[in-house]
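not sure who needs this but someone in the group chat was asking about Terpene synthase metal-binding domain-containing protein from Ambrosia artemisiifolia so here u go. i didnt clean anything up, its just raw.
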Amino acid sequence: MKACNLVIILDDTYDNYGTYEELEIFTEAVQKWSISCLDMLPEYMKPIYQELLDVHKEAEDFLEKTGKTYRSYYTKEMVKEYTRNLLIEAKWANERYIPTVEEHMSVTLVTCAYAMIITKCYVHGDDSVTEDTFKWVSTYPPIVKASCLILRLMDDMATHKEEQERNHVASSVECYMKQYGLSEEQTHELFTKLVEDSWKVINQESLRPTEVPRSLLMPPINLARVCDVLYARGDDYNHAGIEMISHIKSLLVNPLSV
């Protein structure tokens, strides 16, 4: 949960709060991953950076007892990759640059953060999780890439209008419209088809022989399912509707019936 909260905080910092110059400094600090970098950061960024180090140190201390500290290495590398690509997005937003679809996807399939979250799902996994599992995720195999694409497209369809009212990086919707001369409606139709195709990839990858134990396919599958809960009826992530509020109450508030 701490790790997921940090993803949200980092995303908001790069999207809404940091200047480009501040984000360059923060990204450099993440790449160095050292408490000595704390003094180089603006005051409001210091607690974020400190928490980032502390959360991973806590996990590393636990993993050291079981001889699995390699898992911490891969999660750190994913965080580093995530912030590098968030900085690219910030540069695009700062320059009002609309990238090509290919440029956009190469960056935003990383910044959707699903591959990083999937990696974190494996950190405290049992012995079915090996170093090869982490190497597998880092290559964005088809099932992971499909899960990332579902989030990217469904998120952008639901949020792009509101995001473009502020200085936000161009979404995949704007990129497709510009590159292919499509209307917004045509782009949404295309994205719906691409989401359906991505689910076909997930289904195919779930049925064929896999490089990792089948149980380890559940994080990318379940994260793809989350997209329907968050975005099938609009932007329930930022503006929770009645159904989303009901889900939250069922999970966190209402007692289970026995």
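also The mean pLDDT is 94. if thats useful
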